[in-house]
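Quick question, first post here. What does this chain look like in 3D?
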Amino acid sequence: MTIDQITEDAETVDFHRDWQQWRLEHDRALAAPHGFLAVTGLHFLTADPTSFAGVPGVWRTDSAGVHVDLDETETVTLEGRPIFGHHDFGVLAERSGVVVESGDVHIEVAKRGGFDILRPRDPANPRRAAFSGSTAFPADPDWVVPALFAPFIKPRPTTVGAAVEGLEHVYDAVGELTFTRAGKTLSLVAFPGHTDGELLVLFTDETAGVTTYPAVRSLSVPAPDADGEVRLDFNRASNLPCAHTPYATCPLPPIENRLPIAVTAGELDPSLDAEIVERIAG
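> Answer (accepted):
Ran it through. Tokens below.
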């Protein structure tokens, strides 16, 4: 065996080890005590005072923001301090929120798609207990694809649909990623990622609704280098929470991100029959 072969074998081992670690961390976050598998409901607030099962208080929203009224037997905590009676949360910014606690239950008070919502998260949710891990195509280094990022002169507000019918999200598209696959030059619109310089891509492809979740998959992309070069590791294409729970308001891909190829990499549709998963993932 040559030095080059030894190096190549070591890199392959590292690739598969890193991918398995990524999957483990991804599943751990999803199944955390107050992760998305713990969500038990999605409640849209209105001007009418309303109570919800398993949530203390009577809730409403108006131009001044979100309000709750708790009776003398009820209390919740916010940032470690107890709340009694009436409390004003103020106007919440889009995609922001706070968490109030009622025993083991965490109640997310947030704004999504212009609507104020409540989303209780209970560690005892059966959906969380039933989760045994995500499934995916076998990792394949061939699906680590070189790409070139071309930033837009200024961010472009882009309206996309949501997993909840009638809801829309607006994201600032910051540029376009171009790559070649199956003899085709393809491109993906990119949004800002979770850390500075990182990018986020929402997409579907020809596997959508066949072996992968129909609505959307997500791909985090590291910050491109000074020349705009970056690698798209489609092995890390993951499902958003809406693939696992009906109580997620996940964004859908912009129309430009519907790839005309089959991306046989990344996470599979959680609803796939076990025999199909076994045949694909081994």
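The CA atoms of residues 129 and 247 lie 17 Å apart.
The longest strand covers residues 144-161.
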